[in-house]
Write a structure and sequence with these properties.
The complex is a heterodimer of chains A (372) and B (198).
Chain A lengths: L9 E6 L6 E5 L5 E4 L11 H8 L4 H4 E6 L4 H4 L2 H7 L4 E5 L5 H12 L7 H14 L7 E3 L3 E6 L10 E5 L4 H14 L22 E5 L2 E5 L12 H7 L8 E5 L11 H7 E9 L2 E3 L2 E3 L2 H10 L3 E3 L5 E3 L5 H10 L2 E5 L4 E7 L8 E6 L2 E2 L8
Parallel strand pairs in A: 3-4, 4-5, 5-6, 10-11, 11-12, 12-15
Antiparallel strand pairs in A: 1-2, 1-18, 2-3, 7-8, 8-9, 9-10, 13-14, 15-20, 16-17, 18-19
Chain B lengths: L2 H8 L11 H11 L9 H8 L7 H6 L29 E15 L3 E8 L7 E6 L16 E10 L5 E9 L7 H18 L3
C-alpha cells in the first residue's frame, strides 16, 4: 500500500470513508494535487496527508495544487490544515464563491463557529492561512471551460502535455449560488444558527485532467436538475470544453440519481470506463441506493466504491450511558468511517494500462448489495 | 454534639435568661430544647442565637430592664427563629457523556441530528431524538441548523439523592447584532482586498 508511484507514473487515489471524500492525483514527476478533504477519525488528520507521508512524499514541496470543489462538510474537513501544511500549493475554489457575500458569510459564521465542525469555519481557516503567508497565496477560481493548469511536454517528466480543466460551475450556476449565498448572510435580530448547505449543488467544480491520451473526469458533487444552463446538461452541451473522452470517472454526488445524466456516459466517457464513487449517509439518505448501484453497474462493469454505504452501530460507551440512551428512546448511529481507498496507477507513456488496488473497505460496486 | 452540650454551649451568653424575661426565657428554652446540633452546625446555631442583643445572663438579672434599650422585649424574641433547613448544598452534575449536536431535519415526533462527541472525539454520529426529550421551553428552538448540547450523567440533588439524567439543552444563541454584521462585512472587505477575491 505504501509505495510511491514512479516519476513517470500517474496515480489517482480516491479516499472515502462512509462520510467524506478526498482525491489525490499524481501528475508525474512528484507533482501532486489534493482535491477536497476528509478526516481520519483516529489520527484526526486528513487521509490524503497521512497517505502522502506514508509513501514518503514531502507534502510541503510536492503538493502543488489544492482544490476545494465546494464547501460541504463531507468534502472540506481538514482542508485548512492541508493548506497550512502544503506551503507551496496554490488554492483553487469555485468561482461561485468569489463574492463579497461569501466572504461576509464566512467572516460572520466561520469566525463565530456555531459548532465544533462546519464548512464555513473550515473555509475561514483556509482564508486566514492564505492571508498569513508573505507574500500572500492568492487563490484561483474554477468556472466552466477554464484551463487551470497547463504543463508543456518539455516541462513534464512524462514528456506529455498535461492540462487541468474546470468544467463547472456555469455562469448561470455562479449567479444562482451567489444569490443563495446572499440569502444565507445573517440578518440583524435573527437567531444565530449553523449555516445550512445549499441544495441542489450548483457550485461544485467538475475537473477534467488530461495527460497525453489519458483523460480523467472527476465529477465532484455536481447535480443535475434538467436545466440547460446548469449542472451536467450544461457541461455535456458545452462547445468549448475539451472533447476528449475519459477512461476514468469519479461518479458525481455519491452515485445519486439527481446527479446522473446518461449523456455523460455516452458523450464524455469511453465505453466501460473505470468508475469510482464514495458513499454518503446523512439524515435518512443513504447513497448509493440499490437502484443507483443497479443503474451504474449496467453502464460499466468496472465500477468501484470506496466503502460500504451503511451506518455502523454506535460505539460502545459506559453501561450507564448506554442504559440512559436506551431509556430515552434515542437511536444513535455512527457514520461508517472505515477507511476505503481506490488507487489507480498507469504509465501514460506505456499505453494507459491501469493497475487498480483496493484498500480498506473498498470493493466492486456490484458486491455492495450483499452488505446492504 | 449532644443536646446537653448544646445547651451548655449556648448558656448563659446566648440564652435568654433572667427573671424579668421569664416568658422570653421560656420561649427560648422551648426553642433550644431540641437537638438542632444534628440538623445545623454549631456555628449556625450560635449565629442565630447571638443575633439576640443580649450580652449575658448576669447582666439581665442585675440590670433594670426598663433602662436597658438593648434588652429585647418579649416580642423581640420572635427573631430567634431557627429555620429548620438543611445546610445549603447546591445540585451537582457529574457528566459522563457530552455531545454537541445540530438539527438536520425535524419530523412529526422526532428530529434528526448530527452529533459530535465531546467526551471522546471520534467519528460523527447521527441521532433520532424524540421531541418529548426536549423541554417545553426549548421546543420552539428545534429547527434545522439549531445547535444543542446533550449531556448524560448523574445529578446529585441537595437532598442527597442521586439521579441518572439525560439533558438536552438548546443553545439560545443571541440574535445577530448590527455591529456583528457590520464587523463581518468589514472583515470580508479586508480579506477580499488581501486575497484579490473580488
Amino acid at each position: 500500500m505504501y509505495s510511491a508511484p514512479s516519476l513517470d507514473e500517474v496515480e489517482i487515489s480516491i479516499f472515502g470513508p462512509g462520510y467524506g471524500e478526498s482525491i489525490l492525483c499524481h501528475l508525474g514527476n512528484n507533482c501532486w494535487i489534493i482535491i477536497d478533504s476528509c478526516i481520519d477519525p483516529d489520527s484526526k488528520q486528513p487521509y490524503t496527508l497521512t497517505y502522502l507521508k506514508n509513501i514518503g512524499v514531502n507534502t510541503e514541496r510536492s503538493v502543488r495544487h489544492i482544490i476545494a470543489t465546494h464547501w460541504h462538510d463531507d468534502h472540506i474537513r481538514g482542508l485548512g490544515f492541508i493548506v497550512e501544511e502544503c506551503k507551496s500549493a496554490d488554492f483553487i475554489c469555485s468561482e461561485a464563491l468569489k463574492s463579497n457575500e461569501f466572504l461576509t458569510l464566512v467572516s460572520a459564521c466561520g469566525k463565530r463557529s456555531m459548532m465544533t465542525s462546519s464548512g464555513v469555519a473550515e473555509f475561514y481557516k483556509i482564508l486566514q492561512t492564505l492571508i498569513g503567508y508573505k507574500p500572500q497565496r492568492i487563490p484561483s477560481f474554477a468556472i466552466e471551460d477554464r484551463c487551470l493548469k497547463r504543463i508543456l511536454p518539455e516541462n513534464s517528466a512524462l514528456g506529455l502535455p498535461c492540462e487541468i480543466h474546470s468544467l463547472s460551475p456555469s455562469d448561470y450556476s455562479v449567479l444562482l449560488t451567489k444569490i443563495e449565498i446572499a440569502n444565507l448572510i445573517p440578518k440583524e435580530k435573527t437567531t444565530k444558527r449553523r449555516v445550512l448547505e445549499i441544495s441542489p449543488n450548483h457550485l461544485s467544480v467538475v475537473l477534467l485532467i488530461i495527460i497525453g491520451d489519458l483523460c480523467i473526469l472527476l465529477g465532484s458533487d455536481l447535480e443535475e436538475i434538467g436545466n440547460a444552463q446548469t449542472g451536467w446538461t450544461k457541461i455535456v452541451n458545452s462547445q468549448s470544453r475539451p472533447i476528449k473522452k475519459a477512461s476514468l470517472f469519479k461518479i458525481p454526488h455519491h452515485g445519486s440519481k439527481n446527479a446522473d445524466l446518461q449523456d455523460v456516459w455516452t458523450e464524455m466517457l469511453n465505453s466501460k470506463p473505470i468508475a469510482v464513487l464514495t458513499p454518503f449517509a446523512k439524515g435518512n439518505v443513504y447513497l448509493p441506493t440499490k437502484n443507483d448501484v443497479t443503474r451504474i453497474c449496467s453502464r460499466t462493469e468496472n465500477a468501484y466504491v470506496t466503502a460500504i454505504p451503511r451506518w455502523r452501530k454506535s460505539r460502545t460507551r459506559p453501561s450507564t450511558v448506554e442504559k440512559t440512551i436506551r431509556e430515552s428512546g434515542i437511536k444513535i448511529k455512527q457514520y461508517n468511517q472505515t477507511l476505503g481507498q481506490i488507487r489507480i496507477r498507469t504509465k501514460p507513456t506505456e499505453g494507459n494500462n491501469f493497475t487498480l488496488d483496493l484498500f480498506g473497505e473498498a470493493l466492486k460496486l456490484k458486491d455492495v448489495s450483499q452488505f446492504t | 454534639m449532644s443536646l446537653t452540650s448544646l445547651k451548655k454551649s449556648v448558656t448563659p451568653e446566648e440564652t435568654i435568661a433572667g427573671n424579668q424575661l421569664s416568658s422570653a426565657k421560656k420561649r427560648s428554652r422551648l426553642i433550644i430544647d431540641r437537638d438542632f446540633s444534628k440538623e445545623l452546625p454549631r456555628e449556625t446555631v450560635r449565629s442565630y442565637l447571638t443575633k439576640i442583643p443580649l450580652e449575658s445572663e448576669e447582666k439581665y438579672v442585675n440590670s433594670d430592664i426598663t433602662k436597658e434599650t438593648h434588652i429585647v422585649p418579649e416580642k423581640g424574641i420572635e427573631f430567634i427563629t431557627i429555620i429548620e433547613t438543611k445546610p445549603y448544598k447546591p445540585d451537582y452534575f457529574l457528566s459522563l457523556q457530552k455531545w454537541e449536536g445540530n438539527v438536520i431535519e425535524v419530523m412529526k415526533d422526532y428530529f434528526l441530528a448530527k452529533l459530535v462527541d465531546l467526551t471522546a472525539p471520534g467519528a460523527d454520529e447521527q441521532a433520532e431524538i424524540p421531541l418529548e426529550e426536549v423541554s417545553i421551553e426549548d421546543l420552539d428552538l428545534v429547527v434545522p441548523g439549531a445547535i444543542f448540547y446533550w449531556n448524560i450523567g448523574y445529578e446529585d440533588e441537595s437532598n442527597g439523592q442521586r439521579k441518572r439524567t439525560s439533558i438536552i439543552r438548546f443553545r439560545r444563541l443571541p440574535a445577530w447584532s448590527q455591529s456583528e454584521i457590520k464587523e463581518a462585512k468589514k472583515e470580508a472587505e479586508e480579506i477580499g482586498k488581501s486575497l484579490k477575491w473580488e
